[in-house]
Amino acid sequence: MSARRSIADLSADLADRAESFCRLYFPEGRKQGNYWQVGDTSGAKGQSLAIRLQAQGGRKAGSWTDYATGQYGDLIDLLQERLGSVTFKETLREARSFLGEAPCPAESRSTRQAERPDAASSRRIARARKLFAAGNPVLGTLAATYLQRRGITRLGPALRYHPRVFLRKGEDDSDPPQRAPALLAKITDNQGQITGCARVYLDPSTGGLAEIKSPKRILGQLYGHAIRFWSGSPRSDLIVGEGLENTLSIGTALPEFDLASCLTATHIGLFIPPPGIKRFWIVRDNDEAGRNASMRLRNQLESLGIACGDLVPNMGDFNDDLRAFGKDALRRSLLKAMKAQGLEIEDG
Known about the structure:
348 residues, alpha+beta, five-stranded antiparallel beta sheet, 11 helices, globular, disordered N terminus
């Protein structure tokens, strides 16, 4: 039997037992109709991640989506994220163990299940750190080309490039992971420790995003954290944005400000404010998700006595504004909006 057929069979067999799979590996979740809902791939409480329990409307049983991060896949993908396995082979071994096709490890399943959330999270973070450490400076690479074509000139040590990052192209891709070039961005906590690595897969023939579903993916822990860019001088203001390109577009126009990119609207609302910041500028997309996330963070900050202001693009997001109007016009627009909300700064 070929490797491709073996993996496809494993995926199908896991899907046939999707509910049992969820109850074992995601006991903090709960059944909602035809879905098992849980917080994230580590198994935390919540409902951002939805796993389909039975085939429906042309969609396969066992397919899942984490609406907070954009991750998706089949149950083999999910199992790999849950275990934080270093190798794909280890994930397949666990899948066969679950299906009764191979002996289980010596320790009891209840012991592994109790230890798995913290251990799995630690392994994913370790993988993220290892991946980022393997990256190269972005200048002169495909990653720099990608950003520059979007009008972005604000870079920094939070960004790196790797020409060959593991990639599975889609939820129906039963082949072992391939490799593709990617822009890497380190996610850090308020102490500066790396908790994750964002991957933006690129197409070497166009310099744009790779033509795959979800070319932007996250490895490790994003909850409460962000990708950070420092201006080089101490400031009491921090600009907090959604997507990486959106935030760097603001940074291109306002290089004197510190930035934090939370990557998604959901994670803006979950951002943990660092100490010493007296005022936050919340950058959001011009849509309902952005408004809701901005309000959630605003309520949190104001309850702590921290001032905050909103920055809203004229178009869909600030990268649209940057490309449409140019850096100088975007700077004037941003400073006008910030001054209207109480910012005192000399615009040189």
